[in-house]
Design goal:
Elements lengths: L15 H4 L14 H12 L10 E6 L2 H8 L4 H7 L4 E8 L12 H18 L3 E5 L4 H7 L7 E10 L9 H4 L10 H4 L8
Antiparallel strand pairs: 1-2, 2-4, 3-4
Length: 195
């Protein structure tokens, strides 16, 4: 399937893997080979974390039964397109440090680093990922049997090869292209905070 043209232009010299990564909604249902899927989670395993605690956990679904269960946790808008992805996942962040049981306020930051590692590895494998905040948190805790006192469910993920954008709902189809970014000066500033 031909992918949309990526017209992004970085403001500084940076490897294409960063600005080339984007979050499509058109996925092919083609299964992901076991070896490639394992490599995605292996990349996430090597992400940095506070005290090397590695507080993330990825729950993923490939079978029709598990995918239906995971899909049922998504809001209707996301269910409309994410159901085509061959792998659905949720990324969790453990609330406390393993070594002392104290609260780990850096766990979501670290889980985000693991997610980005997975997303970049997916691109190297010719796959795409799309993280979603649009899910029913209470339902996800219930049907995925995640202990709420131990983990925060951070995001849902769709993973797969690029698919046919014609399968998307019309309103979604017209936005199916890499989007832009804020100017560099709005996301990084030298010195102390200023308005």
């Amino acid at each position: 399937m031909a992918e949309p043209e990526n017209r992004r232009e970085p403001e500084a010299e940076v490897h294409q893997e960063f600005w080339g990564r984007w979050s499509p909604r058109a996925f092919s249902p083609e299964p992901i080979p076991e070896k490639i899927l394992a490599a995605l989670f292996e990349a996430a395993r090597w992400a940095p974390s506070c005290y090397n605690d590695q507080p993330w956990l990825f729950l993923y679904a490939r079978s029709p039964q598990d995918r239906a269960l995971f899909l049922s946790c998504l809001v209707e808008f996301n269910r409309a397109w994410a159901g085509k992805a061959p792998v659905l996942a949720f990324v969790l962040a453990r609330k406390t440090f393993e070594h002392n049981g104290e609260p780990n306020r850096w766990a979501p930051f670290d889980a985000g680093a693991a997610w980005m590692s997975l997303a970049l590895q997916a691109r190297k494998a010719g796959l795409y990922t799309h993280a979603m905040a649009g899910f029913d948190e209470d339902r996800a805790y219930e049907v995925l049997k995640v202990p709420r006192e131990e983990y925060d469910i951070m995001a849902a993920l769709a993973i797969g090869a690029y698919g046919d954008p014609e399968t998307l709902p019309p309103g979604v189809r017209k936005t199916e292209a890499p989007n832009g970014r804020k100017p560099l000066g709005e996301v990084a500033r030298e010195g102390a905070f200023t308005k």
